[in-house]
Specification:
CATH class of the domain at 130-300 in chain B: Mainly Alpha
Number of domains of chain A: 1
Helix content of chain A: 25-40%
Strand content of chain A: 25-35%
Shape of chain B: elongated
Oligomer: heterodimer
Radius of gyration of chain A: 22 Å
Strand content of chain B: 25-35%
CATH class of chain A: Alpha Beta
Number of helices of chain A: 10
Distance between the termini of chain A: 38 Å
Largest sheet of chain A: 6 strands, antiparallel
Shape of chain A: globular
CATH architecture of chain A: 4-Layer Sandwich
Order of helices and strands of chain A: HHHEEEHHEEEEEHHEEEHHHE
Helix content of chain B: 10-25%
Number of strands of chain A: 12
Number of helices of chain B: 8
CATH superfamily of the domain at 130-300 in chain B: Transferase(Phosphotransferase) domain 1
CATH superfamily of chain A: PPM-type phosphatase domain
Largest sheet of chain B: 6 strands, antiparallel
Structural class of chain A: alpha+beta
Distance between the termini of chain B: 61 Å
Radius of gyration of chain B: 32 Å
Number of strands of chain B: 44
Strand order of the largest sheet of chain B: 2-3-4-5-7-6
């Protein structure tokens, strides 16, 4: 009896049409409707990260100087539900072997530092390191990474973009011109790091325009990099993760080659972050693959 | 340095210099007592440069007199022929340039020779310290007079170089570490490694020092105005103590000198800003012109000829008149609240006062047995507030008739907050109390093991946040169980504020903390000059709080980068509030400040006759604030 009443009010299954079909008769434009349909109807518990990565030497280079690192964990006990992740992309420079050594040693050193200072205490249930803040530990970790580059790859240098997710907050430390992006549920894409490159600064000052920047002889010159002159300070900033959105870390082999709207399109249409990364790398290579390509894509299900 | 097209490279000089880091040096350094070319007996390392060390040595050709010289060494370590060539060229260039120069601010050169894989310059020994070392040694600001004197001397030596015949010499590397201040407090320019005779319009490799070089130097263009810019950058660093190498290039304009060091005159700031123009044509065209401007600045501010200086107060102090004032019997230390057209405020005279918000007319008062320092809260028809007599009072907000009281075991200095049908407040007995608003019974209480709870709790979702006397910051759930705790080094008296998922509070340990509200992880700490009891407020992505060092600080919520700081004349124990695009904050100097919150620029200020320790409140564009001069003020916001 109850069921039959329920059935009266419940729309028939067959009335559930795919969004594209429904749109043809709906007064709402497709974009907005898609947005509405995308709105999460359930709360994911516990909130979690879904991670994909991809890397390629590119078409025009003969060796890879990029390094990426990803660690994804979760702790949930009903009282505290915390996703945890460490994600790093580094792009080495300096020619010969030192470029790859620089990015590798920097990413590994910082990765180990963060694992020791956050991941292990996180697992043993001591949620914070006494006295030091996340920003301070991050900064010390980047300094360690800098020292490791100076020691292991003298003359080399590397960019470093590292993101550590705890709960729904992510702390990003950044040096150089690797980038971190947020991609929101509505398709907006926003770069959350600032390139430490000369042309970026000259552009900001209105001394050169985007076109001039793309052909500037010093377009690859960074004013800040690990392994190079001190003193320097990484940019460190904490953000709230975009709910049901993505965070993308990538080297300039991706962002310098594939336009942002194409990146956004690939990510939103891919079935998984791993497939998205694969397609991003493919797109960069299809566009000539002038440089090494690394991408780490983190989806946040809250 | 050739780079494969598309590959990244770093500024040339760094490439060359950083191959040599100090950790690799000691074994290569000459030992004390070693004698170079049978003539220079090494006494001590006095500097480590990019290419090798600099030693103090005694010249043994003068056996009967102690003649000390500086021996600058260059070791060619690299096997890269291009780098090697660049180093050798720079070294020889330095020797050749110095040999032709004769100026009191330039060291004399005595000798130049090679010995095995090392080459040496023997120079006049400068007794003194370089400016970078001096800057690192102390935190005290140099007086404007001192900086002007050095700046004029630097203009003189630049003028000498720029007028060099047959071709002008561009120094190209003006920065604090290349400026020695000798024992007589005069400047000496050192390290001519990259100075270059200049032929107009010449393009060259990019060279120079990150942070101090002008934009055009990155295009490979060298001009006399590049040295002017670098001098401006150096002066900016000295006056503000903000190292430009720690900031993105060409961002001096984001760090106005007088904002950071208010003691500097606007004239001096203008001179430095002119030197720092992006466009070389808008800078001083010659070192002489800059020197002239420095002298003018010194005259104008009276530094050079002791003429009286001009105060630069923009806003008249007494330009603001209160709409009304209301006098009570003792100090007002707590914050007011406005409801139903009435202002509720507690006083140290034991009374809660209620006055008409429009006119300031007395409506009623309610007497307790202790001073009232808490901010009242209105819930339904009740006004709730704690007293030093240890009681929480619930009084009809219309009639002033007592409804009920709840007794804690010690004075209540933590302001109550109402959420989910409960009242939460702390007391000096070390408990945080949760009282049912309907039954007025205690639901639970949580005993801290870290002393009195004077910090007013805040509630967000199912979390309650507050601090304790011994520096614990505690997050409870609605059942009074600890979710997490985070630690400061001293008492947390301030209340907290939550934005996104981050909670901000200050402590007497002089830190402003940002803590992840979900996990309790400290995200960052921002150090202020002294301890703080000021509750931060949030505007856009800014966190603003006061400190006992007399400053109101504004920092970026995500990065803890300081946006601005504004000076008051005494401790800032009051809490700032935001209204429209202004921040309002009281200080123990008795003044209420109204600042533009994005820039910290003062809009107006209003003086009272006692310290302002509480937070103001704005209601219908009227600002209400109590002062320890026994007065409640209403001002147009």
């Amino acid at each position: 009896m109850l069921n039959s009443i329920r059935n009266l009010f419940r729309p028939k299954k067959s009335e559930h049409m795919p969004a594209s079909v429904a749109v043809s008769t709906a007064p709402i434009p497709e974009v907005e409707l898609a947005e509405l349909n995308d709105k999460p109807k359930v709360k994911i518990n516990p909130p979690q990260l879904v991670v994909g990565t991809a890397q390629s030497v590119g078409i025009q280079r003969d060796h890879n100087e990029d390094t990426l690192f990803a660690l994804n964990a979760i702790l949930a006990d009903g009282n505290t539900d915390l996703p945890f992740g460490i994600f790093i992309v580094a792009d080495g420079m300096g020619g010969h072997l030192n470029g790859e050594i620089a990015s590798g040693t920097a990413a590994k050193t910082l990765g180990e530092y963060l694992v020791t200072h956050f991941y292990l205490p996180f697992m043993t249930g001591q949620p914070h390191s006494e006295g030091e803040s996340i920003h301070e530990v991050m900064e010390n970790g980047v300094r360690e990474a800098h020292r490791s580059v100076v020691n292991d790859a003298p003359g080399g240098g590397t960019t470093l973009t590292a993101a550590m997710v705890i709960g729904d907050q992510v702390t990003v430390s950044h040096v150089g011109d690797t980038r971190a992006y947020f991609m929101f549920q509505d398709g907006r894409m926003e770069v959350i790091t600032q390139d430490h490159s000369l042309v970026r600064r000259l552009q900001d000052l209105g001394q050169i325009d985007e076109k001039e920047a793309s052909i500037h002889p010093q377009r690859n010159v960074l004013y800040r990099a690990l392994g190079q002159s001190e003193p320097f300070r990484p940019d460190i900033k904490t953000h709230t993760m975009p709910g049901f959105g993505y965070m993308l870390l990538c080297s300039d082999g991706l962002w310098g080659t594939v336009p942002e709207d194409e990146i956004s399109e690939i990510v939103s249409s891919a079935p998984s972050p791993a497939m998205a990364c694969y397609k991003l790398v493919e797109a960069a290579n299809a566009a000539g693959g002038p440089d090494n390509i690394s991408a780490v894509l983190v989806q946040y299900l809250s | 340095m050739p780079t494969v097209s598309g590959e990244k490279s770093i500024l040339d000089t760094q490439r060359i210099t950083q191959n040599f880091n100090s950790s690799q040096l000691p074994e290569k350094q000459l030992q004390q007592g070693s004698v170079v070319v049978n003539r220079y007996a090494v006494q001590e390392v006095i500097g480590v440069g990019g290419m090798g060390s600099v030693y103090r040595a005694r010249d043994l050709h003068f056996p009967n007199a102690v003649k000390l010289v500086a021996v600058k060494e260059m070791i060619i370590q690299t096997r890269d022929p291009l780098v090697r060539q660049t180093i050798v060229q720079n070294f020889e260039r330095e020797a050749n340039i110095l040999a032709t120069l004769d100026h009191p601010a330039i060291p004399r050169i005595f000798d130049y020779f090679s010995d095995k894989e090392r080459s040496y310059l023997v120079l006049e020994l400068i007794q003194g310290k370089d400016l970078e070392e001096l800057l690192n040694q102390s935190q005290a600001n140099y007086s404007e007079e001192q900086v002007i004197q050095w700046a004029i001397e630097l203009c003189d030596v630049l003028s000498y170089l720029h007028n060099h015949k047959p071709e002008p010499i561009i120094f190209r590397d003006m920065k604090p570490s290349n400026i020695m201040i000798n024992q007589n407090n005069h400047v000496i320019l050192i390290d001519f490694g990259i100075a270059k005779a200049f032929r107009g319009g010449q393009k060259g490799t990019m060279i120079g020092t990150e942070g101090y070089s002008p934009p055009e130097q990155y295009r490979g263009e060298a001009s006399l105005q590049a040295d002017i810019y670098a001098l401006g950058a150096t002066l900016h660093h000295v006056l503000t103590r903000k190292d430009p190498r720690l900031e993105p290039p060409f961002t001096f304009g984001d760090r106005p000198i007088r904002k950071i060091n208010p003691a500097i005159s606007i004239e001096m700031e203008t001179v430095v800003n002119t030197a720092l123009n992006y466009n070389p044509l808008e800078r001083f065209q010659t070192a002489e012109a800059m020197k002239e401007a420095l002298i003018m600045a010194g005259r104008k501010t009276g530094l050079l000829n002791r003429m009286p200086s001009v105060p630069s107060v923009v806003v008249p102090v007494d330009g603001v008149r209160p709409l009304w004032v209301f006098k009570v019997e003792d100090e007002i230390r707590g914050s007011p609240v406005v409801e139903h057209g009435s202002v509720f405020v507690g006083s140290y005279d034991n009374n809660l006062y209620v006055v008409n918000a429009d006119t300031g007319a007395f409506e009623w008062k309610f007497a307790t047995d202790g001073g009232i320092v808490t901010r009242p809260v209105i819930a339904d028809d009740l006004v709730l507030f704690g007293s030093e007599d240890g009681k929480l009072y619930a009084v009809s907000s219309r009639t002033g008739k007592q409804a009920w009281t709840f007794t804690a075991e010690a004075p209540i200095r933590s302001s109550p907050v109402v959420a989910e049908g409960y009242i939460f407040f702390g007391a000096d007995d070390g408990y945080l109390y949760a009282i049912n608003l309907i039954s007025n019974r205690m639901f639970w209480r949580y005993k801290t093991d870290s002393g009195a709870v004077r910090s007013s709790p805040i509630v967000f979702g199912d979390q309650i946040f507050f601090g304790t006397e011994l520096g614990d910051f505690i997050c409870l759930n609605m059942s009074g169980q600890v979710k997490w705790r985070s630690k400061a080094k001293r008492a947390i008296i301030s209340s907290s504020v939550l934005s996104q998922s981050t909670i901000f509070y200050t402590s007497l340990d002089s830190m402003l903390y940002a803590v992840d509200a979900k996990s309790g992880y400290a995200i960052w700490r921002f150090r202020m000059g002294k301890g703080s009891v000021s509750t931060p407020c949030i505007a856009e992505n800014y966190v603003i709080a006061g400190s006992a060092d007399g400053f109101i600080y504004c920092v970026d919520a995500g990065s803890s980068r300081e946006i601005w700081r504004s000076r008051t004349d005494n401790q800032v124990s009051g809490s700032p509030i935001i209204h429209k695009d202004s921040v309002y904050c009281g200080s123990a100097d008795g003044t209420l400040y109204c600042l533009e919150y994005r820039t910290g620029r003062q809009r107006w200020k209003f003086g009272t006759d006692g310290a302002i320790t509480s937070s103001p409140i704005v209601y219908n564009d009227v600002l209400y604030v109590g002062s320890t001069d026994h007065t409640l003020y209403a001002l147009a916001a």
